[in-house]
Amino acid sequence: MSLRALIDNERVPKHIAIIMDGNGRWAQEQGQDRLFGHFHGVASVRDIVEGSAELGVKYLTLYAFSTENWDRPEQEVTGLMELLVETIRKEVPILNKNNIRLHVIGELGMLPDHATIALQEAFDLTAQNTGLNLVLALSYSSRWELVSAVKKIAEDVKTDKLDPSAITQDTLQQYLSTSEFPDPELMIRTSGEYRISNFLLYQLAYAELYFTQTRWPDFRKENLYEAILDFQKRERRFGKTSSQIIEGLTNN
Ligand code: FPP
Questions:
Q1: Could you tell me the distance, in angstroms and rounded to a whole number, from the CA of residue 162 to the centre of ligand 1?
Q2: Does residue 237 surpass a pLDDT of 90?
Q3: pTM exceeds 0.90, yes or no
Q4: Ligand 1: which residues within 6 Å by Cβ?
Q5: Which of 21, 23, 133, 223 is catalytic?
Q6: Model confidence over 6-53: pLDDT tens digits?
């Protein structure tokens, strides 16, 4: 039986977040430049976006470029930006054909102008789509996001728009760049690193974490199915006991 057929369609995670890691190592293992790995990583992005849409995943967040990635060698940063812009421009018709809406989270003011323009065009052109929401984390880091949220909250308190005693977890959630999206239920990291690397630290509080040795340029739908099957085997307790969870299931 194929892995796809083993997936319980009723329990597919609504939101999957992925740290696409290992492009550089994949390229270097083949005696190639790191950019060669990023270039091949685009094929994985296409396959995983398509696979997620087919499974009915509603939100897919991809960590494409972190705030810390700006410190990489200039040639790699410029090459990555060009690849991102070119890919986004080229993929818009395919996103539309598949009813996929593009979103971006991150410190967008850091991006070069041509990238901001390409992104704005892609948002406008896909804004009516109602299927998968593809969220690119670009120039993103969780600590940047949390500091930005705290600044906005402080500003609203100062201007009497917000009462500090009324601040709840939901209030903080509304000030994050992910305010429109539910929290990820499954976070996948490729390439054998066991870290979160400043990615969605607040939102991943109850996510199931899945780590695989597969390098991102080799990651395909079958690998996504493996991760989802692993997720479906887990018992998500949200701080409760196992018997409380089983009772809740039998009472429903
Ligand atoms: C991490 O591998 C990957 C990145 C920093 C960039 C990811 C970008 C792409 C896959 C290109 C296109 C993306 C989109 C969304 C169009 P790494 O360079 O850190 O690898 P290493 O850990 O082996 O050095």
A1: 39
A2: no
A3: yes
A4: 20-25, 38, 41-42, 45, 62, 64-65, 69, 83-84, 87, 136, 216
A5: 21
A6: 999 999 999 999 999 999 999 999 999 999 999 999 999 999 999 999
69 is catalytic: yes
What is the third-level CATH fold of 15-232? Undecaprenyl pyrophosphate synthetase (3.40.1180)
Around Cβ 130, how many Cβ atoms within 10 Å? Answer: 9
Task: Calculate ∠ Cα 72-133-26, nearest 5°.
Answer: 35
Spell out the domain ranges in the chain: 15-232
**What's residue 242's pLDDT?**
75
Tell me, yes or no, if 156 is annotated catalytic: no
pLDDT in tens, 57-111: 999 999 999 999 999 999 999 999 999 999 999 999 999 999 999 999 999 999 9
